[in-house]
Amino acid sequence: MPQGPRRGGRKGQTYTATPKLRSFDVPPASEVTITRADGTIEVVPAQKPKATKKPARKRGPLICAKCGQRIDGKAVRSTESWTKGKPVHPAGACARETPKRSTKPDPASTLPRARGGTARPYKDPNTRAVRESAWLQVTCPRCGAGPGTRCTVRTPKGTVTGSSIPHQERPQVVRRAMAASAAQKKAERQAQQPR
User: Fold this and answer.
1) CB within 8 A of 89, min separation 6: which ones?
2) Long-range contacts of 62-68 (CB under 8 A, 24+ apart)
3) What is the pLDDT of residues 113-139, one digit of tens each?
4) What is the DSSP string of 72-120?
5) Which of 144, 148, 113, 155 is nearest to 133 (CA)?
6) 160, 143 Cβ separation under 8 angstroms
7) pTM of this prediction?
């Protein structure tokens, strides 16, 4: 195939200009007479132009736009703003997607164990501030549990059971007594200091 002239680029590059003639791509539609240098003449009959198909583009496997993993089953087009229109896994099948948790807690998890649930007993600030040995020495104002016995709680079934946590008022009694004794000690110290 004859090549066009060689040209120099701006920065010293060189490229060959190949002429874009129709005769290079399309076979002759009528018969052609070829005269060679030795004097022989050859007649080439007309040929039917052959339609050349473009090579089919080979596509690789679909890749999920969210997690980057290969999509083996059916792909879905994303509707999220950052991956809009791109292929993603169907809902729940994406490795990056975390399963949605229900906002409502399980009813059994909200009930304490003393009442048939699975929740750990909640200790209010009064209970956490006072040691168990201290509030066990006081009578409970709410349920009347005497010193040395635990507070009693009525279950939904109507039975009465002992609770591992006291009623709020029981540690409060101890806290008030502790605060009163601390205030009394402070007043005694200030009275003893010389002025």
Assistant:
1) 64, 66, 67, 69, 71, 75, 76, 95, 97
2) 62/87, 63/87, 64/88, 64/89, 64/94, 66/94, 66/96, 66/97, 67/94, 67/95, 67/96, 67/97
3) 666 665 555 567 777 788 888 888 999
4) -S--EE--SGGGTTSEEPPTTT-SSPPPPPPSSPPHHHHSBGGGT--BP
5) 148
6) no
7) 0.36
Close Cβ partners of 129 (under 8 Å, ≥ 6 residues apart):
171, 175
Dump pLDDT digits (tens) for 49-81. 666 777 777 777 888 888 888 888 888 888 877
From residue 154, alpha-carbon distances to 141, 143, 160 in Å are: 16, 10, 4
Find where tokens 């997607």 sit.
97
